[in-house]
Amino acid sequence: MKAVVIGAGRIGCGLVGQLLRASGWEVTFVTRDPEVVANLNRNGHYHVLMTSAKQNQKVTVGGVNALAINHESAVVDAIAQADLIATAVCSQNLPAIAPLIARGLAGRTRPANVIAFENMPNASNCLRRLVASMLPQGVDVDRHGFSGAVISRMITRRIGNPSDAAPLTFIGDEVEDFVVDRTALRAPLAEITGMKLVDDYQAWVLRKLYTFSAGHATTAYLGWLKGYHYVHTAIRDREIRQAVLKAMKEGQKGLAAKFGKEFAGDQPELDAIVARFENAAINDPIVRVARDPQRKLGADERLVGAALLAEEAGVIPEQLALVTAAALCFSSSGHAETCTACFEKSKAAEALNQICGLDAAHGFGRNVAKSWAQLAPSILPGNLLLSLKQHMWARA
Length: 396
Prior knowledge:
The chain has an eight-stranded mixed sheet with strand order 5-2-1-6-7-8-11-12, sandwiched between helices. Strands 4-3-10-9 form a four-stranded mixed sheet. Helices cover 47% and strands 16% of the residues. The protein has 17 helices and twelve strands. The radius of gyration is 22 Å and the shape is globular. It is α/β, with parallel strands linked by helices and 396 residues long. Helix 4 links the parallel strand 6 and strand 7.
């Protein structure tokens, strides 16, 4: 069984490659970084350090090789011979790799499966459309399977300089589970450690977004407001911890109304998520989790999407409104005067509509506008938010 993993970063090496090798697959990485290619080929292995509150486990991932993405003929040949193509390149880079995947699939005599390990709800559909548009006439994209992957592991960083002789190490927690869409894949697909095949894939996408991802974002945006630098320090702030649990609970209630209580999970599940955020060994920077706020503020994303689903269930998403406002402040933080100016009535409404798809005069949008108007004028360089309820850092 052969697999090509496009992307040799945190997700590609720190999760996908490790699980594939643990399942007996041959793995070829494809990456644009020539030093990473040289390091993987020189050593033939790398390490994954999986951490938890109780233990650290270092796993050596051996028997791997790598290709530079600009060696197009070799990459295309590898894709043509692979049973599985996995992508882990960040969603904005999918258009750049789609031509190589299309050329590789066009040269195949039997179906292959493509799994997009990208942090976006519709990654598989996006990649499938891109590849379909580039296939030669007469080559049917439907011969091949395309699924996204809902991953659980947090992989925060790489240790080691790829130009050095030593193998690279990737740091993450010990969770291995990932979910793929059974209905979108083509048989046969050999077993992969941690893979859970489901028929209701979109429900699982929302489940992660509206609990884990919403909680992660809440920790980051409120932690940024209060001056923390790492997720594990922010979540130990009692006020932030309470806000994180409340925000996830609002999302969970929306999921329960749509998909049932058993699917949505319970309080112990939320507590387990918070415990993962507390893992100091992960050492996850807040600015990493908070980055790309405008995407994360989308109408179907982790904050606004969770809040709107909660509203449908009759829940008032008060905590998600505060977090959404904090994310808007982070989005504008490079231009403090712009952040403050948005609270002229017309500009506030325009910003909420353009970024979040919300109406500032009604429902959840009105609650976000109210919280944003309280927070934004007080965001000053170097200030710390001492309380989320009493804005002690505000201008006199």
